Amino acid sequence: xxxxxxxxxxxxxxxxxxxxxxxxxxxxxxxxxxxxxxxxxxxxxxxxxxxxxxxxxxxxxxxxxxxxxxxxxxxxxxxxxxxxxxxxxxxxxxxxxxxxxxxxxxxxxxxxxxxxxxxxxxxxxxxxxxxxxxxxxxxxxxxxxxxxxxxxxxxxxxxxxxxxxxxxxxxxxxxxxxxxxxxxxxxxxxxxxxxxxxxxxxxxxxxxxxxxxxxxxxxxxxxxxxxxxxxxxxxxxxxxxxxxxxxxxxxxxxxxxxxxxxxxxxxxxxxxxxxxxxxx
Length: 280
Ligand SMILES: Nc1ncnc2c1ncn2[C@@H]1O[C@H](COP(=O)(O)OP(=O)(O)OP(=O)(O)O)[C@@H](O)[C@H]1O
Fold this sequence. Notes:
- By secondary structure, this protein is α/β, with parallel strands linked by helices.
- Helix content is about 30%, strand content about 25%.
- The protein has helices spanning about 65-75, 95-100, 115-125, 130-145, 160-175, 190-205, 220-225, 240-245, 250-260; strands at about 20, 25-35, 40-50, 55-60, 80-85, 90, 100-105, 180-185, 210-215, 225-230, 235-240.
- α3 crosses α4 (about 130-145).
- The termini are far apart.
- The structure holds adenosine-5'-triphosphate.
- The site of adenosine-5'-triphosphate has 11 residues, from β3 and α1.
């Protein structure tokens, strides 16, 4: 039985999923989404309504199904069951409409390594059907704001992890999408670059666009997001405005641990060989 992630009354949903009303019209609607890999159910029938114009965090422990969900929502992976609508358009039956409205920074981003950062953005602009002059203007501004202007002529293969995230973000933003999906956008990014990315994303959402990103870093999600969905074992455990999901807990981290089950294994005696006091 699929989870009912966002109920209208703010009551607890099935499986004890804490739920709350959404804040506005849905940018993305997920209905009964399922994905199985062999015997492994990665996503177990989720329903979600992601409100437009919000900074949305998708959080969950390792293996919860976040990447699988984002891959299905962005048209990179075909669901076994269910459907996804972006601004009312079906991701699988109306892919061109949807892809013109979204930007994606996927996990394990693959880039054209033998292009320079500047060339990559030029190529993305053409793919997106932007006029050359407009692409150049936007690329110059994005490279500048993301502190990549000095490396714009370097080949992408020579970029660091953080630089790759930033050029991937620039490529995802170039066509000014309505909804931006980011899988772990801050992973491997230094604090200065993280602050820069954050500034760009805050500016983007303040103009009415929607950001959906996955992360393990609760402090980051708590400080950035207006709206949060918590996943565990392929299901939505809670979804709604940040304050509602946090509930009475002192922090999102505490609420998260309560929702997904603290689950931290006590090593007990099983690692008794580890450490300075143990016999070597
Ligand atoms: N291509 C695949 N083939 C087989 N199993 C897969 C595949 N992709 C994901 N899975 C399994 O599906 C489950 C969900 O994985 P997923 O990558 O979506 O989780 P996640 O929440 O993104 O995890 P993490 O936070 O560790 O990145 C896991 O049990 C994973 O092993």
